[in-house]
Design the sequence.
């Protein structure tokens, strides 16, 4: 068969086949754990009056329930109907006693909604088995029944024909099999989808829980932002103190001394003055570097498109730049985006061994997306180096995200996304690449 | 020389005017914002314009844009662009028309008055002056590229000084060698870079910069 035809057929079958596997996973997980967990929950609840055993047991059972349901939520993401995690965080403080642990578990509504889900979930999860069983049975009829009958057994039943006791009859199973296979693959996706839509009523966070989660996220990113700001200010203070400030002190000393020596030793005074000249040059260079680190002048003068182009020009390898922005993002977002791209480029220059790199910047559906790629050796990870991890933290302050695709052997693609609105187009024209 | 200055900070504007006065040049007009630059240049047709990149009212790159626009309107008008920081991007835009009479310097280079006036004169004569920082960035960026790797350390030094816009005599003085030695180095550089040799200082520098900036 021609390879393009083969790939077209596979493209048609792929979603159904995937859904069949997902259905099997859902069914195994639900049937395998839900009922047992339900029984354990009931027993541990029943044991609560019995001398406190239940107080310790119920939270332990809850841990198991959450393990299983977290796996089921992960499956929901895989199936394309993601269900977020609703659990309240572990209360802050030292180790929890039995009573605090019990109270935390019992007071979280997610615990009870999980509990309510276990039995209905077993039923719909069981139905999901059809997503796998129908195509599997169809496949059997389509391909194997004649074979099996031919090879071994005297009779065999399939579909509506029972029994099939001779080889000729066995071919009757094939059309039924193809029909079942096609039908099964067609409905598999819908079965799994229905299951998870239904599960969402129990397992997804309620509106209140969603807000609580959002507040928690905002508090965490705000704390990060404050830390980053403080660290930045400390760095600026140190740079000024050890750099420009120290040089200005030296400058004043040189000039003061030169003034004193002017009459008696003009030659030495002149030497001191030229030293002072040099020191002032260094002080200015220090300040220039510092300013670049705070808010790059080219960003002020040319906005993000020009600044990204300027970055590409100073990179030690050829970088293709493609910026499509009908307006300019807010200044703070622009600056975060600039430093994120700069860091990604630095990483490429330092670690990737790439010969070429590229930067794409677009704004689509309210999201500014910056994609930086290279043809290097890959293997980059935001968890290994502090550079990309720092970028992720900085972007988080704007609800931005960063994903790194970098398989060993490359290529590496770093995608950074920042939700923002664009303001009216800039007046200053930006030149194209070339 | 008749000079037009565009600089928004009064302190620096006056300082520049004083320096130019002291060297016998005439500042025919000193403007303080972007929109006034082009009219002043068309009115006076000066021998050279000294323009700050960042000017009011937008405090972006109005000065640079005005300088570029002026050179489109008055081809070959000598322009010396000053800034607190240098960008490869701007250097490339200034060099794009390849017609000479262009300078791009950090503002603090003005403090070395003798060199500054010298640079001013070279630009007014249709020459080319690039800030050493631009040149060193260009060389660093291209140092891994094949033809530049073939240059000797001394040839690279000569190339850097050439790209800053210095004459053979100035390069010879700086490196304590004879002018003849310098022109020999330069011929080597050109043959290694695969460029046609040229006696014209300016065309030579332009070729090198265009090569590095491509």
Sequence:
């Amino acid at each position: 068969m021609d390879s393009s035809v083969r790939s077209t057929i596979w493209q048609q079958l792929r979603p159904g086949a995937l859904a069949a596997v997902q259905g099997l996973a859902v069914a195994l997980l639900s049937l395998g754990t839900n009922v047992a967990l339900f029984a354990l929950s009931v027993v541990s609840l029943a044991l609560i009056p019995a001398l406190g055993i239940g107080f310790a047991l119920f939270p332990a059972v809850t841990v198991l329930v959450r393990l299983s349901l977290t796996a089921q939520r992960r499956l929901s993401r895989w199936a394309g109907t993601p269900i977020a995690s609703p659990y309240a965080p572990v209360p802050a403080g030292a180790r929890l006693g039995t009573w605090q642990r019990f109270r935390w578990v019992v007071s979280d509504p997610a615990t009870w909604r999980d509990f309510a889900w276990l039995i209905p979930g077993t039923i719909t999860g069981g139905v999901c088995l059809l997503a796998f069983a129908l195509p599997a049975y169809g496949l059997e009829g389509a391909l194997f029944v004649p074979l099996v009958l031919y090879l071994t057994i005297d009779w065999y039943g399939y579909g509506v024909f029972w029994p099939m006791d001779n080889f000729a009859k066995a071919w009757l199973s094939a059309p039924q099999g193809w029909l079942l296979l096609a039908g099964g693959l067609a409905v598999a996706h819908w079965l799994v989808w229905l299951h998870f839509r239904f599960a969402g009523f129990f397992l997804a966070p309620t509106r209140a829980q969603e807000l609580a989660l959002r507040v928690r996220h905002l508090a965490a990113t705000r704390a990060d932002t404050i830390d980053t700001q403080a660290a930045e200010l400390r760095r600026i203070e140190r740079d000024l103190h050890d750099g420009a400030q120290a040089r200005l002190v030296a400058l004043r000393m040189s000039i003061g001394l030169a003034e004193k020596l002017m009459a008696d030793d003009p030659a030495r005074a002149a030497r001191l003055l030229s030293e002072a000249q040099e020191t002032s040059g260094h002080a200015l260079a220090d300040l220039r570097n510092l300013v670049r680190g705070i808010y790059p002048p080219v960003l002020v003068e040319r906005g993000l498109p020009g600044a990204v182009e300027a970055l590409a020009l100073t990179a030690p390898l050829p970088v293709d730049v493609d910026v499509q922005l009908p307006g300019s993002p807010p200044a703070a977002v622009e600056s975060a985006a600039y430093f994120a791209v700069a860091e990604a480029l630095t990483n490429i220059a330092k670690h990737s061994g790439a010969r070429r790199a590229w930067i794409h910047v677009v704004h689509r559906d309210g999201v500014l997306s910056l994609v930086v790629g290279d043809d290097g050796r890959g293997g980059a990870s935001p968890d290994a180096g502090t550079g990309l991890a720092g970028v992720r933290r900085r972007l988080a302050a704007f609800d931005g995200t960063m994903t790194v695709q970098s398989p060993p052997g490359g290529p590496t693609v770093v995608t950074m996304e920042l939700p923002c609105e664009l303001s009216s187009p800039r007046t200053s024209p930006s030149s194209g690449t070339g | 020389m008749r000079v037009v200055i565009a600089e928004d900070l009064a302190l620096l504007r006056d300082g520049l005017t004083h320096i130019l006065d002291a060297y016998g040049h005439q500042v025919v007009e000193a403007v303080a914002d972007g929109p006034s630059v082009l009219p002043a240049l068309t009115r006076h047709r000066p021998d050279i314009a000294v323009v700050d990149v960042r000017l009011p009212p937008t405090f972006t790159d109005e000065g640079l844009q005005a300088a570029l626009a002026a050179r489109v309107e008055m081809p070959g008008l000598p322009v010396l662009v000053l800034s607190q920081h240098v960008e490869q991007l701007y250097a490339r835009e200034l060099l794009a028309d390849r017609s000479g009479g262009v300078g791009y310097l950090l503002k603090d280079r003005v403090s070395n008055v003798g060199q500054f006036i010298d640079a001013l004169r070279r630009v007014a004569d249709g020459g080319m002056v690039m800030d050493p920082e631009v040149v060193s960035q260009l060389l660093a960026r291209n140092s891994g590229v094949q033809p530049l790797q073939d240059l000797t350390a001394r040839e690279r030094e000569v190339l850097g000084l050439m790209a800053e816009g210095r004459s053979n005599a100035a390069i010879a003085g700086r490196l304590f060698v004879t002018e003849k030695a310098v022109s020999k180095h330069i011929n080597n550089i050109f043959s290694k870079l695969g460029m046609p040799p040229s006696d014209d200082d300016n065309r030579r520098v332009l070729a090198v910069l265009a090569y590095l900036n491509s």
In short: Residues 134-213 of chain B form a domain with the Arc Repressor Mutant, subunit A fold (CATH 1.10.10.10). The interface with chain A takes residues 53-54, 58-62, 64-65, 83-85, 87-89, 92-93, 106, 108, 111-112, 137, 140-141, 144 of chain B (CB under 8 Å). The longest strand of chain B covers residues 26-31.
